[in-house]
Design goal:
about 45% strand, globular, about 280 residues
């Protein structure tokens, strides 16, 4: 069947943007974005409502929001001074935001989650670029000599955020160890920082200090770029904060897979968001 010329031109013009989109997606750089918790407010009072969103993006770029996904969630807990709540017993699947609750506590509140393994497969060249983009230097990779057509990776994510209602308490909840495979621990309370804006963090991998490893610090302040630091021999990094605002500490650690039938490599992603007062 012949299509009239004016119709052909009309539909060709409509197809051009689609073709451009396909080209952009096919040539876009590989980038496994960070997941992070972002409360609507880090500083709260009793009677307020705490709402915590789960965003996907790099350096606080909100590219996608995730709801609560029961099928992939291993743990979801909320801690206050002397109390803890297993939210998987009450959380509603597919809920936006992921968590919300009336503020009935004083002091610090810590929300944490662990997500189950997810899997991806990449061409060797794309995988090698992905390692470079994410600053992953622990894995030597030569795409030319890679023996298979694909590289298989499985990954898990470990997220924390801490908020403050009224005045900070003395519970040291900010440094609570949860036993996650990859865990960021704050060694001083961001809500109690005074003149100094130095925050020390410790990174653990399977309970042991993760030494000489890259840790990234992001801020919502537009004029501050992402900072890259390295942990010392004790797994500790000192973060120089610019002042009041919202911050995110995050990192990724990759190792050869412990289950070669499942994947070639496994990666562990951790993030910890918090606020700093004036």
């Amino acid at each position: 069947m012949l299509i009239p010329q004016k119709w052909a031109q009309k539909y060709t013009l409509r197809l051009i943007p689609i073709a451009i989109l396909i080209l952009v997606l096919s040539t876009a750089p590989v980038h496994a974005h960070d997941y992070y918790f972002l409360p609507e407010h880090f500083f709260l009072k009793k009677g307020d409502t705490l709402k915590v969103h789960l965003f996907v993006g790099d350096n606080f770029a909100r590219e996608l929001e995730r709801p609560y996904q029961k099928y992939i969630t291993r743990k979801l807990d909320f801690y206050t001074q002397g109390a803890s709540d297993n939210l998987m017993l009450t959380a509603k699947d597919s809920a936006y935001p992921l968590y919300w609750t009336p503020v009935s506590f004083s002091g610090l509140g810590l929300l944490s989650t662990e997500r189950n393994y997810a899997h991806i497969e990449l061409l060797p060249g794309k995988f090698q670029r992905y390692l470079k983009e994410e600053g992953i230097t622990d894995i030597p990779m030569d795409s030319i000599s890679w023996p298979r057509t694909k590289v298989r990776e499985r990954y898990t994510r470990y997220l924390k955020t801490i908020v403050c209602a009224d005045q900070p308490d003395k519970s040291r909840l900010y440094k609570k160890r949860l036993g996650s495979a990859l865990e960021i621990i704050l060694l001083n309370n961001p809500y109690a920082l005074k003149t100094t804006k130095t925050l020390r963090v410790k990174v653990l991998f399977r309970g042991k200090s993760l030494r000489q490893h890259t840790v990234l610090l992001s801020s919502q302040t537009p004029d501050i770029r992402e900072q890259s630091l390295r942990t010392d021999k004790h797994g500790i990094a000192e973060l120089m904060l610019s002042g009041s605002g919202v911050y995110l500490v995050h990192l990724v650690h990759m190792i050869p897979s412990s289950e070669p039938k499942e994947a070639d490599f496994e990666s562990f992603w951790a993030s910890y968001s918090f606020g700093v007062a004036r």
